[in-house]
Design brief:
alpha/beta; 41% helix; 10 helices
Length: 259
């Protein structure tokens, strides 16, 4: 199976912005094991700005574009150094791919992305994708890595996108505010009622939230790709997902749309 796994800043980092070393190690171990078992794995990783905030000792995530881009430049170095070291311990070579929204709308750039991604997988490398935050501005940015991961999954020909977040899945209400909220384990159609459950922004260090995850689900399912939202606190649940067990919220694709 070709699987794209998206991991958010809230999974990778502590609230300080510093790396959650234990969880990141476990994530890399599980993804390495999945590759060893024959799966093709693509990782879409947030965390560059968040880790840059921590490394630069900033009080909070910056709001101005130059400081965001500076934090991303610093944090991306640490992020890829960490992945290279951890995946290298399990014998896997990583490759960095930094994208902007323009790469998906420009015909030649998109074709180059597809060709490069395909060749990296043929060479048994593990591609790690992030938005190119050091140059992306509002006009050319994807805007969030949930949407980016969906675009990557569709254009890389993946069968499944797994978004690892700080929540178990899509609930009937905000579980942090409503104790009676129930987890929706399966979604076969993204209706207006489902979209209404999107709520607002995610963690203080990230840019996403349930709204962006539902947008990602729409992109995936309309293109014939299944998507799952699951809790990234336990990376081992990826074993259950690849074994076909029920985890989190699964959005079922329109299989007739798959190319």
């Amino acid at each position: 199976m070709k699987i794209v796994v998206k991991v958010g800043t809230s999974t990778l980092a502590h609230s300080t912005g510093r790396l959650n070393i234990q969880r990141t190690k476990r994530l890399c171990e599980v993804l390495s094991d999945l590759k060893n078992s024959g799966h093709e794995v693509i990782l879409v990783s947030s965390g560059a700005i968040g880790m840059g905030v921590g490394k630069l000792c900033l009080a909070s995530r910056p709001s101005d574009i130059p400081t965001k881009q500076a934090a991303a430049a610093v944090g991306q170095c640490e992020l890829m150094y960490t992945y290279d070291k951890l995946f290298g311990e399990y014998g896997h070579t990583v490759a960095q791919i930094l994208l902007t929204g323009a790469d998906f709308t420009h015909t030649d750039r998109l074709e180059n992305f597809k060709n490069t991604m395909g060749r990296l997988l043929e060479l048994n490398a593990l591609p790690i994708v992030n938005e190119n935050d050091t140059i992306a501005t509002e006009e050319i940015s994807v805007g969030d890595n949930d949407t980016l991961s969906a675009l990557v999954a569709v254009n890389a020909g993946a069968e499944l996108l797994v978004i690892l977040s700080d929540i178990d899945g899509l609930y009937t209400a905000d579980p942090h505010k409503d104790p009676s909220a129930k987890l929706l384990s399966e979604v076969y159609e993204i209706t207006d009622e489902i979209n209404a459950l999107g709520g607002g922004k995610g963690s203080s260090l990230g840019t996403g939230g349930m709204k962006t995850k539902l947008r990602a689900a729409s992109i995936c399912t309309e293109a014939g790709v299944d998507m799952i939202i699951a809790n990234g606190q336990e990376p081992e649940l990826l074993y259950k997902i690849t074994n076909g067990e029920r985890v989190g919220t699964k959005f079922y694709a329109d299989k007739g749309a798959r190319k």
